[in-house]
Design a protein that fits this description.
Distance between the termini: 58 Å
Low-confidence stretches: none
Strand order of the largest sheet: 1-5-6-4-3-2
CATH superfamily of the largest domain: Transferase(Phosphotransferase) domain 1
Structural class: alpha+beta
Shape: globular
Largest sheet: 6 strands, antiparallel
Mean pLDDT: 95
Number of domains: 2
CATH topology of the largest domain: Transferase(Phosphotransferase), domain 1
Number of helices: 9
Length: 257
């Protein structure tokens, strides 16, 4: 027996992926653990990087054996399918994200294949590894530019933490778009929540205030939002996020705002 898949979106890359899935072992989760560099493995998702046609790709399994979920996927109505469509729109709007390539329905749920970014590292990993002051300021300004481009396109990320920001060749890319939404109502509040999430990540990393100020200065300049209004809208989100992380992780970093 072999692993089988039904391509729902992206026929060219979907065909290449299903051909790869035919190799042992049987079972999508087991196959991914053997053939990808796993970066996440929990009850709802399994994700890892692999090479297809000599190119680095990112593969994410949305786990579900529920028949309704599979029917919704076939009808292109399931939540992961909306994530795929959002990623297509953002890529077309020149928001720096990995380009989505294919969706394949399998026995354990839905596989989504996206571009992989060679030599990229997330902001937390780069901060922990140590970077020059000049490079850190470039990273802050790069994150502000990418976030402002996303917001000008009418979308918010929903979980703009440092783990979801990748730095490569002087540009910041956003990943994990499951919470990304197009905002029409309460858009300013949702944009401020993204900035607040970035700020809490900066606080938990222990960065100096000057780096966060560089990020905020750049974001304000690119987005055109009034700084005082942005800070006012951020405050409730900052308090909520700090309280949640204290309760869940026992983290009490020094506030930067």
């Amino acid at each position: 027996m072999i692993n089988k898949g039904t391509v729902i979106r992206g026929k060219r890359w979907g065909k290449r992926l299903t051909e790869r899935l035919r190799t042992p072992p049987l079972g999508i989760s087991q196959w991914m653990r053997r053939h990808t560099d796993v970066v996440k493995d929990d009850a709802s998702t399994l994700a890892g990087c692999l090479r297809i046609s000599r190119r680095r790709r990112f593969l994410k399994l949305y786990r579900s054996r529920n028949l309704l979920f599979k029917l919704l996927c076939l009808a292109r109505l399931a939540r992961p399918m909306a994530t795929f469509r959002t990623a297509l729109v953002l890529a077309a709007s020149e928001v720096p994200i990995p380009r989505p390539l294919s969706c394949v329905l399998v026995s354990e749920g839905l596989l989504m294949l996206s571009e992989g970014l060679d030599s990229s590292r997330d902001y937390c990993a780069l901060w922990e590894a140590g970077q020059s002051g000049e490079e850190l300021y470039r990273m802050m300004r790069g994150a502000a530019l990418t976030l402002s481009v996303l917001h000008r396109a009418g979308y918010t990320h929903g979980d703009c933490k440092w783990r979801n920001l990748l730095w490569i060749d002087g540009e910041c890319f956003m990943v994990d778009l499951d919470g990304a939404r197009r905002r029409r109502l309460f858009a300013a509040r949702a944009r401020a929540r993204d900035v607040a999430r970035f700020t809490v990540s900066a606080e938990e990393a222990g960065v100096p205030s000057s780096l966060l100020q560089a990020f905020l200065d750049s974001y304000v300049a690119h987005s055109g939002v009034a700084r005082e209004e942005l800070l006012r809208r951020m405050q409730p989100n900052l308090e909520k996020l700090r309280g949640r992380h204290l309760e869940k992780y026992g983290i009490t970093p020094q506030p930067l705002l």
